[in-house]
Amino acid sequence: MSQPQAVQSPERPRTRRIGTAIFAVLAAAVIGVASFFSIQSASGGTDVRGNLTLIAPAAAGGGWDTFQRELQQAMRTNGLVNNVQVVNVPGAGGTIGVGVLSQQPEANNLMVGGSGQITAQIQFDTPSRIQDITPVAKVLEEYDIVAVPADSPFESMDDVIAAWTQDPRGVAWTGGGSFDQLVMTDIALDAGIPVADTTYIPSDGGGEAIQALLNGTADVTAGGFADIYPQVESGRLRVLGVVAEERLSGTPEIEAIPTLVEQGIDVTITNWRALFAPPSATDEEIDQLQELVAETVATPEWQATVERNYWREAPLQDEEFGQYIQDETDRIATLFEEMGQ
Questions:
Q1: pLDDT (average), residues 182-211
Q2: CATH assignment of the domain containing 92
Q3: What is the residue-averaged pLDDT of the chain?
Q4: CA atoms within 13 A on the CB side of 85
Q5: Residues near 254 by Cβ (< 8 Å), separated by ≥ 6?
Q6: Fewer Cβ close by (within 10 Å): the C or N end of the chain?
Q7: 9 domain residue, yes or no
Q8: Are 109 and 151 part of one and the same domain?
Q9: Residues of the domain holding 154
Q10: What is the CA radius of gyration of the chain?
Q11: Residues 6 or more apart from 150 whose CB is under 8 A from it?
């Protein structure tokens, strides 16, 4: 695969920018009101240990929301913060939440984010970008797995690549979001298959992608482990590989899943989760937030959450994390260029 280069996104309609700005103003008001009442009820004022607002840049029930509510529970159970609340700020692939966080004057606002927001800001050329906020710590990674229906003729990734190479449009892929399409794109590039000639059927979440497989609409999926693997355990789907640098730990069945790299496919892109603070946060406040995050992820409650959701801890912070964000932005931009978007 060629060295990633940042690309210029095509100009987007002005109305989209106006709509995004209005949404950001409204969402900021929601955060402001929620923070006001939280501060009133907290004895610790606005310091991160006395009062903390966890921003989930998506609706309730999704991956970002789950992350923040599990973080909240671990903090509460272990008394790490006097008062901690979760506020949902959905919209524009998580970039509305970025815009809201960038306007907060206090450091005691912590948003979860990651590759999904980078994907959205490139795909939609959003005015709010992850580079506008302050990275605190990368916490974990979620991995995609490649799966097919249990009765599929594809027994391995070699089978998929062989059929796909022969007929790029004839092997239909699906996934639950833009990130899953990036995974498919990366696999196609590595296999030398023209991305413009492939067939990708977008689905609204992992459940819809699974149905597309089961009803024959799609042949292969690249989807989140937590969404797809239960269907493998039930016998409805067959897993062909995990998109990770090394095999995952867990049950013998999970540990037996080969990586794509093992199968000669150099694709390791991950759906990572990290925490971000407002740009107003000082170095001292960032240090305090990093200490709080470290204490939280070391709790038994959080460790159980990681295991339950098939997550993998992948800590990173400071200069290394900043460089990681830039590298991921460049890589995702290149994949979108290949997709013609």
A1: 93
A2: 3.40.190.150
A3: 88
A4: 17
A5: 229, 248, 310
A6: N
A7: no
A8: no
A9: 144-263
A10: 20
A11: 235, 236, 237, 238
